[in-house]
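Notebook entry, cofactor series.
This is the third protein in the set we're modelling with a bound small molecule. For this one the ligand is S-adenosylmethionine. I'm keeping the input format identical across the series so the outputs can be compared line by line later. Sequence and SMILES below, as received.
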Amino acid sequence: MLIGATWHFPLANRSGREVIRLTPGMAFGTGTHATTKSCLILLEKWIGDEERGRLLDIGTGSGILAIAGAKLGAIDVTAVEVDPVALAVARGNARINGVASKIVFRETLPSRSRYRWVVANVTAPVLIELSGIVADRVGPGGTLILSGILATEWRGVFLRYRERFTLVRRIQRGEWITLLLEKRKK
Ligand SMILES: C[S@@+](CC[C@H](N)C(=O)[O-])C[C@H]1O[C@@H](n2cnc3c(N)ncnc32)[C@H](O)[C@@H]1O
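Returned structure with ligand:
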């Protein structure tokens, strides 16, 4: 996955990888932050390699992970963002990248649907507070990526999910941790 600001296009891309054009505006998510990078790498590996499914992106910011998921082959994407300014930026970025029709943007978490992949790059307190509803949104055998967690916080976050999830990978970049969890089928 290559990320470039809209003003850097046309971008030299000899890798054959998917490209995202972004205007970050007032929203978090240019692709340079350690947490965003880790999430992108995991999405690229897991969505790229596996069967098709639906993606939920919690704390979409600029829309970067939702757009990546749509380009990598998710059937559809739901992107949640509490900040209305960021939400407007994310909608614009989805249009620029030609994936607006695949992404539904909203300010609140869906209360029913189940997703093959859920990615939440927010903060440890938010991941702890929302652990029940976030865990419910992942389908049986589904994948949950949790990020925005400091190295000192990851055990406390995992504690809230470990009853229903197995820890598959823990990535550390600098002081930031990203967890890849798999939901148990029963
Ligand atoms: C660290 S940024 C991540 C942005 C982008 N997903 C990325 O990976 O670069 C976290 C975003 O989550 C949003 N956020 C914080 N709490 C939230 C919540 N409870 N529900 C949805 N979005 C939330 C923030 O407004 C912010 O835009």
